[in-house]
Queue: 4 jobs
Job 1
Amino acid sequence: MTRPLILALTAALLAGCTPAAGPADVFSESKTAVEEIYKLQAAFHRAKTMQDMTLMMSLWADDATLTIQGDARSPYAGSASLKAFWQGSGSFVNRRLSLVPSFKTQIEVRGDEAWLYFECHDIGEFDQPTRNFAADVFLAGIVRRVGGRWVFWKMTAGKSLPLSPDHYYFSKEEAGWRKHS
């Protein structure tokens, strides 16, 4: 069993599942949520790489916020503000391949909300001999299930430097996850 799945199952159990819900039911529901959230982050990277604004905007709740560490204009709140941000971002201005170290992805589900952490390592001019690291960032925060699908809700982004296989650049506590739930 993977660490994110164990976290999701533990979170579901701690969230007060009723005795009528057997372990198989909790496991199945948590596993499905983790899979759907993992697909959300995969779609995010696809939207950036393919410069697909329609897909990118479909991944965010209407009332979502995105705080960018070090950006005095943030937080970006609501669909119009988020769209304007993404249209001017490096991934939508420049052609990049957005990669993610999947072993660092964190997902913890509590009902219709979840903690999500992942990193993006973008390669500029990815199909050219001059390719280069264009960006190393994280995206982390609270995602929600809205209308049966998972979307980004209260997210924070920042630099993930220096690169590290075991350092996380933002925590659940910083996101208010413990206080929130």
Note: The beta strands are 60-68, 76-77, 96-99, 106-110, 113-124, 132-146, 149-159.
Job 2
Amino acid sequence: MATFDDSIGGGLTTGATTPKYGQRKVSKPNTRIVRFADGYEQRIVFGLQTNQNPRVFTFTFDVSQADAVKMEAFLDDRGEEGTSFDFQPPGEASTSKFVCETWSKTIPYVNRAIIQATFRQVFEP
């Protein structure tokens, strides 16, 4: 299993995989709601209780151009293989499995890059 950390691509600058402040975390519990005509409502949870609240993080990484190339290669490889990777978001107690289906790269000036990526938590063995 691949891990999104400073060792990817033969090694990144220390701290490159630490996102800038201003990250966004979205939680949306996976429940089904049945609404009846009289206003009564029932909520139903399907599947394992521990897997019912996948998180989606939006991160911004401000890195060197060389680190950006390695990060993009890592994300490209996971996308082509359809595999997840391990990552421990800042402020979270443990590592989880994520997929990154969307990211963008901006080059604000020479030898710097800003990567904005959306990591979606997945539940796999």
Note: The mean pLDDT is 88.
Job 3
Amino acid sequence: MTDEPLEPEVTPSRGFTKPLSYGILLALLGLLAWGLVRVQAGPRSDGPAPDFTLTTFEGDDYVLSELRGQVVVINFWASWCPTCRDEAAYLEATWRAYRDRGVVFLGVDYVDTEVEALAYIAEFDITYPNGPDIGTVISQTYRIQGVPETFFVSKDGTLRGVKIGPAYPPELEDRIEPLLAEQYP
């Protein structure tokens, strides 16, 4: 044995890892809080309608901002949704009644398979434009809570309400008529 003092082992500083751990924890808690606030905020129902492009099952593109000057009805649906089936014929009938009056319907298929979605469209003889919400980008932008949900956009591109759950007569007409009557300079 020697009488020389042993040098202490060099270990990584714990002073750096604790603040880093706390920072990661705070960031995760912040993301969780942001998500909870967003969910509690519910679907968008007013203000400028978030723009999006819907590519239909036929490959046509509809850009919401390019539909200004028309009333737009955006319906989020899925083939696996029982209450979507309840409103499907009504949506199609209302579309047919209003399509020549400056109203556009857009169907946004939510978390579905293309085969099932196309079968649903065929079953209900749906003729208004429909396309998949790839990556749920559109539904997240509109903060939908589930399906069906229907959003109403005025001619100037402003959201004018949302119907959560299936629509039944005369709910769509009651929303569309006032939007058609609005005058803009």
Note: The chain has a mean pLDDT of 88.
Job 4
Amino acid sequence: MTSSTSEHATIPAAGDTPAAGIVAQVPVRRLLSRIRPAFAVAPFIIYTFLGLGIPILAVVDFAFRNPKGHLTTDNINLVSHGTYLLGFENSILLAAITSVIPGVLGLILAYAIVTSKSALLRRLVATASGVLANFGGINLTFMFIATLGSGGVLTGWLSAIHMNPANFGFNLYSFYGVAVVYLYFQVPLMVLVITPALGGLRASWREAASNMGASPWRYWRYVGIPVLMPSVLGAMLLLFGSAFAAYATAETLTAGTVTLAPIQIGNLLAGNALAGQENVGYAIGLGMFLVLAVTMGLYGLVQRRASKWLR
């Protein structure tokens, strides 16, 4: 008696085949691949919302409320006139000056360092720039007062040779004195920001231009400067934002005698406000946020342009 195995054989269902299992897992993998990036950035989003989003919402809310909590536009109207408007004008002018001049000086210094053959020098400058770019406030103010103040060491030396800065109209405790102090940390910041862009200039571009008979000036005019310009503008926008929002250095140096928007906010929040104007500081803060938002928007645009070349 013979038995046939074909009588007991079963045909597997379509869903039981290995290929079908793999196909069923594909949507799950695709879903996980989309969810994982969201989980990766979730801590940053939460941190940003708690540290930046909630304060911004609070500033916007209080900017449109009077001390009794009622909605009003009086705070905005006050900020758009008189001494508060002057504070914005001075802050924007100071930020412009201390972004363009340090931007040019930092670009020249960074190019000199990048083209240097000394690796030790590049490391030292990078380290020093990282430290000096974050050096400000009371320590920086004391250093400049001890150096360029009315009784400073350098002032005494210059006076001995009849070159006292005060004789030429320089006053450390004035608007332009603050600008000079800002150069101390703005130039190193420019060096840090622009050095990667300078490193992105390919040597093959210069070689190709030279092989085609282009002079160094024509290379920089038609290749180097157009490629670097978006990065340079982006770096200067960062310097602008840094100087526009700086507070401690200007406050400790001038004791509030120079009208700047951050100093005005500090005075108002400290209680130096007229009756009914307690929330004007929030309106100034809203104005500063709008200026910085425009600055960061422009920075994003120029960085997108720069990334097309320096990849």
Note: Confidence is low (pLDDT under 50) at residues 1-9.
